[in-house]
Amino acid sequence: MSLFKARDWWSAVLGKGEEFDQGCLCVGDVDNSGSGHDKVVVGSYMGMLRIFSPHVNKSTEGVPVEAQLLEVQLQNAIIQVEVGKFVSCSDLLHLAVLHPRKLSVYSISGTAGNVEHGDQYQLKLVYEHNLQRTACNMTYGTFGGVTGHHSLCIQSMEGMLMFFEQDSYSFGRFLPGFLLPGPLVYNPRTDSFLTVSSARQLESYKYETLAVATEAENRQDPDLPLKTGGKRLTPDWTFVLGEQALDLCVPSFSHSSASIFVLGERNLYCLRDNGQIRFMKKLEFNPSCFLPYTSVTDGTTNLLMGNHTNMLLVYQDVTLKWAAQLPYVPVAVRVANFPELKGAVISLSSDGHLLCSYMGTDPSFFSTPKVDAREADYEQVDAEMKKLHKFIREATRTQDILPKTDIEEDLIVTAAVSANMDSESQALIQDIDGLPVPSVTIQVKVKASSVVQASKLTVSIQPPLAVTQDQFVLEPMGVGSSTVVAFSAFLNGRYPPADLTGDVTVSYSSPTGVPRVLQSRFSLPLGLVCVPTSPAKTTKFKITVDTNQAPVDLNSIFPEFSGKSEDKDGNSLAFQFLSGAKVTVLASKTSQRYRIQSDSFEDMWLVVKELVRRFDQHFSKLGVKDFKKSFSGPLPLQEYFLSVDHHFQLRVSAQQYQDLLSERAVQFRAIQRRLLTRFKDKTPAPLQNLDTLLDATYSQVMALAEAAEENRALLEEAFVRLRSATHLLVLLMSLWQGLTPDQTAILEATLLPLLQDTPQLGWEESCDAAVSHLLRSCLSRSSKDQATSLAQAGGPVLGLPRDTARLKKHITLLCDRIGKGGRLTLASEANVQVPAQVQSLAAPGGVEPIAEVAGDGEELEPPQEMTKFIKKKQPSKKVKKDKKDVTKEPTETSLKEEAGGAEEPVKEAKKEKKESSKEKKESKKESSKEPKEEGKKESKKESSSSTSSSSKEKKESSKEKKEKDKDKEGKESGDKKVSKKSSVKVKEKKKEPEAGEG
Predict the structure, then answer these.
(1) For residue 876, how many C-alpha atoms fall within 13 Å in the half-sphere facing its CB?
(2) Is 965 helix (H, G, I), strand (E, B) or coil?
(3) ω into residue 181 within 30 of 0, thus cis?
(4) Distance CA 544, CA 555 (A)
(5) Considering Cα of 679, then 683, then 684, then 685, what sign does the dihedral take?
(6) How many whole angstroms separate alpha carbon 511 and alpha carbon 451?
(7) Is 559 in contact with 625 (CB distance < 8 Å)?
(8) 74 near 97, Cβ under 8 Å?
């Protein structure tokens, strides 16, 4: 940024919407007045030709009328204008105007006026040349040493140089190796032409060489052999620039300072006439134009240079002498002499701003006011410092991505749920197992504080809940107007939901056109999915919640269910879900405990959540501030794992149905092709029962599609039940360890990373990855393990696992570490310092995935029941013609048997831990090499018969241990060093899973 600005002496704005470039400006005594004063000639791409004679400080709005001598609209765009002696037998200056397909030479004459309007100027065409090729630029000079007049050379877009001597065409030559045109200039000292080719080198061609070279009309391609007489055109000398040139200039002030100036995109070059470089200046900006002019110091040259930061710089050779600020980016700059000002700088912008300026400074009359000397008030300064510290703490405490604004929203959305059920139910299913299905009305009020043209309202609710209408298009609203939308919610499935909340989303555009979204949440009543009933005495699952306050009457906590309750004392209350089990709540008369029991583990979630929420509301109304609730019993992990196994088995069944469907579809299309070939054959041939096979395959495809659809519905139900069980487990863990809301949110996001299953990504693999991340980061044993996990470059791609044993182990380990005092936090990851020995592992591929091992160091094998299930249902990928029956579909009984057998892997894992506890050191040594061998052994086990007994498995495991002992003896000679710290870590790994299971 320059401290000085170019002083505005005269300025004008040329037209509107016109474009200008570096060839559109020239200066000279174009009207031959004889006074030696210059006129400014400007041509535009729109065909406007203007001539100005600037006067001092007489500019008005737009173009000053008294300074403009001539303005003519020509038919074609003006590429370049030059002033010179272009007419034979005349020493007067004429104006040459280059159009894309025409060269015109004009004479400018002025007639003295006798009235106040002043002199009159006329533009007269002397001669013109129609060009056969599109012109790019031109140059002029005394070609061949001829004195008294100037000749013209035009460069076309195809690389042809066309020479004109006054009103006659001389000859044309093609430049060798031409691709794109560059700047062109004539050097009168050596009678040569300079241009920059597409090879990014400066080339010099002598006029004599061009004259005797091959005619352009006879030779279009310079690389072809010569057909007629003449010489091949070659440059006199070349100089490699390495960049594209913006402009060339050959000043002819004195013979002592003979130089060729080249303005590149990033450098300024100065060369001698023979192509040797004099100096080079590396530019720290993007130049736009330049002009060398005479210097008062002999042997040096001054340069005016404009750049794209609106600066006009003055260099003396390579030294910066002055810098001035311009109001625009100049594309052409010239120096002219006017009657009132000698050496004025003329600059032109691409949009038509013409400025005559000079460089200098004006005196500044501003004086700095005196500062009142006063003593500092330290108390006031201290108070201000405390206030600023408070602002800084509040700003750093909130880590929101977007700053919070106090601007009033354009819309206010409020959702209100009716206190009573609808008199006439809107449910699609009127009754479930004899119980009527109710519905409740929700009213959404949208109030506008500004004008809103179009807005859309969307209602989203978790299945199996549904609404009568989920999308609304709201009418345009004015300031202060409001719109009320009503709809009903009801149960639309034969299983209880996992969440009773819903979201209302309003999308609209603000008055300025910015799209915005507002969201409001509502909670549905518990009575929408259950009814009061009589308590049950014997149940399968029980949960006990402790409090520090006296027992509360349950009828006062649940008034809407107390009317039909048989227990008038308020010690028991039962809820019968419309499509689920019965849930009973019992309050102890002597202690401060509450028991929730049911035959379904998942169905207890909504009741426990509502009970805890209403306890908080009840005691907050009473003013009790120290109310605490806790859960002391063991976590119901085995009950939770039953839901996990059931969901996983349905996912496996869905994958098998998909494979079978693809196999049958391939078979169906193959039979169709065979039949189509038979039908198209001119000689009829027997079908060989292909039609019967087609019907049978079609029946199999339809049966498989129906079974897959039924399995999909069961999978949706299983995922909702799994969500309920997961919510219940998270709530019990938060009560068990007294987790904060932030820690509970982290735990819930870890165990419920997905809101719905997809074929590509399911709950098991997502939850396993999230739990593994917590175990390696904030719940890791040491900061070194945490830093190692943070430096790891990521694991394999998530996919459907073989079984759920690894997931169960990780969830058990998570609960165990939280129970031992581990705290869930996301901030610890940023505070861990990565050790130096771990930093080298941060590169991609630097850390191998950690093999999942059991507590004793051995890999977990898939349970026998799951292996049997996979082997039975695994389809082959080839089309078998003999296979006509549908592969036996997984039945509900088999799913139940497998769900019951899911406990066996846990027992087997315990046995294996006890048997292998003697081999801790062996497993530690061989942990890096065993996974490959174990993988081969597991693949052999899977290929063997699935009905092998447990006794055979023990024998095989004993054989494997013997083989490991032999491998160990062979490796002990090469690897004997085992650190004591590693053995301690092995013991810790052994102890943690046992503590979790206990």
Answers:
(1) 8
(2) helix
(3) no
(4) 19
(5) negative
(6) 7
(7) no
(8) yes
In one-letter notation, the amino acid at residue 402 is L
Whole-model pTM: value is 0.47
Calpha distance 735→792 (Å, rounded): 34
Each residue of 775-790: pLDDT tens digit? 888 877 765 555 555 4
More confident position, 109 or 666: 666
- At 315 the three-state DSSP class reads strand
Longest Cα–Cα distance in the chain: 130
pLDDT in tens, 619-645: 888 888 888 888 887 888 898 899 999
Q: How many angstroms separate the CA atoms of 581 and 433, rounded? A: 12
CA nearest neighbour of 598 among 584, 619, 586: 584
Query: Which of 205, 208, 204, 232 lies closest to 219 in space, CA to CA?
Result: 232
Which residue, among 38, 39, 58, has the nearest Cα to 50 in the 3D structure?
Answer: 39
Amino acid, res. 702: M
464: left (phi over 0), alpha (psi -120 to 50) or beta: alpha
> 485: burial class by Cβ within 10 Å (0-12, 13-18, 19+)?
middle
Q: Which residues contact 914 (CB under 8 A, 6 or more apart)?
A: none
Return the closest-CA partner of residue 261 out of 322, 321, 302, 295: 302
Mean pLDDT, to the nearest integer, of 49-74?
73
Residue whose structure tokens are 């909702």: 720
Q: Which helix (H) or strand (E) holds 260?
A: strand 260-264
Asked if 870 and 948 count as a contact pair (C-beta separation under 8 A), the reply is: no
Query: 């909670």: which residue's tokens?
Result: 523
Q: How many helices (H) and strands (E) does the chain have?
A: 20, 44
CA quadruple 779, 785, 787, 788: dihedral, nearest 10: -130
Q: Which residue has the tokens 């009950």?
A: 639
CB-CB contact of 426 with 468 (8 Å) = yes
What tokens were used for 729?
A: 């487990």
